[in-house]
Design a protein that fits this description.
This protein is an alpha/beta fold. It has two domains: 224 residues, Spore Coat Polysaccharide Biosynthesis Protein SpsA, Chain A (Alpha-Beta Complex); 52 residues. The chain is 45% helix and 19% strand. It contains eleven helices and eleven strands. The strands form two sheets. It has a seven-stranded mixed β-sheet with strand order 3-2-1-4-9-6-10, sandwiched between helices. Strands 5-11-7-8 form a four-stranded mixed β-sheet. Helix 2 links the parallel strand 2 and strand 3. Helix 1 runs parallel beside helix 2.
């Protein structure tokens, strides 16, 4: 009988983080979870040793991505291998509250029409000190967020993979992660999901911890920083692809009209800015004239002087 949850762990040449991730999963109060570690082009020997030494070895399998691999290919390899009804991506450097699985599984069990459940999340900043990674600060990710749906995701991403437990059947319905993009693959997937189904949201105490290391590059770096240019590029690519699909079905009329409104909005803002600057300039001159009579006389004389 399959486990109720499959946890997919993407990793590449980060044994310290992988060891920590497996210990994090082992600390969950919910234990009916299989673990699929996807080695995305790193040393298989090292990954196998870390898994063998972990408390989760008996319920963990290791897969390798096919070349050229990549974040989306690794996620998809794990999802295709999963046979549990619920799945979640636990990247090797992220962490959970010990009750993440127990509480999200309970919510999804009680919400048969919801595609998945997202949780309140904290950003945990860390830095390397010797051989250890040490937390230096933490802040809420989208503080005050009480729900995530299509309308909120249209502007920008409001969730990260470590915070989203969802039904495995979604991949049969809406497809897998888009391997044609290098970044924002989670957001693009969430858009497809929420276009068809609602998702639950567990607010309050953060149950997911998205770790960040802003100054770190190389294998230990975050995709958020390592792929900063790709995030902006792929965000636009996702929006353009959706717009082309809409235009194909409905024509250019509405997008053209929205573009016109946006241009006029920018023109109005530019005009308002110029008017405010002009008013501030006039007010400053009046203030100088009132407080500094000598400056006022000099300014008038300069204004009368012939220009050469």
């Amino acid at each position: 009988m399959p486990n109720r949850v499959a946890v997919i762990v993407r990793t590449k040449d980060r044994p310290v983080f992988l060891r920590r991730a497996l210990a994090d999963i082992a600390a969950q109060t919910f234990e009916d979870a299989a673990i699929i570690v996807v080695n995305d082009g790193g040393s298989r020997e090292v990954v196998d040793q870390v898994v063998a030494d972990s408390a989760t070895a008996a319920r963990t399998v290791v897969l390798d991505t096919a070349a050229p691999g990549g974040r989306c290919a690794a996620a998809n390899a794990g999802m295709r291998a999963a046979d549990a009804p619920y799945v979640v991506l636990h990247d090797d450097d992220d962490l959970w509250h010990p009750e993440f699985l127990s509480r999200t599984v309970a919510v999804l069990d009680a919400s048969p029409t919801d595609a998945g459940v997202m949780t309140a999340t904290e950003i945990v900043y860390e830095e390397q000190r010797g051989e250890e990674w040490v937390e230096t600060a933490r802040v809420p990710f989208w503080e005050g967020l009480s729900a995530v749906g299509l309308s909120t995701l249209l502007e920008m991403n409001r969730a990260v993979p470590i915070s989203f437990l969802y039904r495995r059947t979604l991949h049969d319905e809406v497809g897998y992660y888009d391997e044609g993009i290098d970044a924002v693959e989670d957001w693009e997937f969430y858009l497809r999901v929420t276009a068809k189904h609602p998702v639950s949201f567990l607010g309050g105490t953060a149950l997911a911890y998205w770790t960040q290391r802003p100054g770190t590059r190389g294998p230990a770096g975050n995709s958020m920083f390592e792929l900063a240019d790709a995030h902006e590029r792929d965000d636009l690519a996702v929006r353009d692809a959706a717009l082309r699909e809409w235009v194909h079905d409905n024509g250019l009329g509405l997008p053209l009209f929205i573009g016109l409104l946006e241009r006029r909005r920018h023109e109005d803002l530019d005009r308002l800015r110029d008017e405010l600057l002009s008013a501030q300039r006039d007010m400053l001159i009046r203030e100088l004239d009132a407080r500094h009579p000598i400056w006022s006389r000099i300014r008038r004389l300069l204004g009368r002087a012939p220009r050469r």
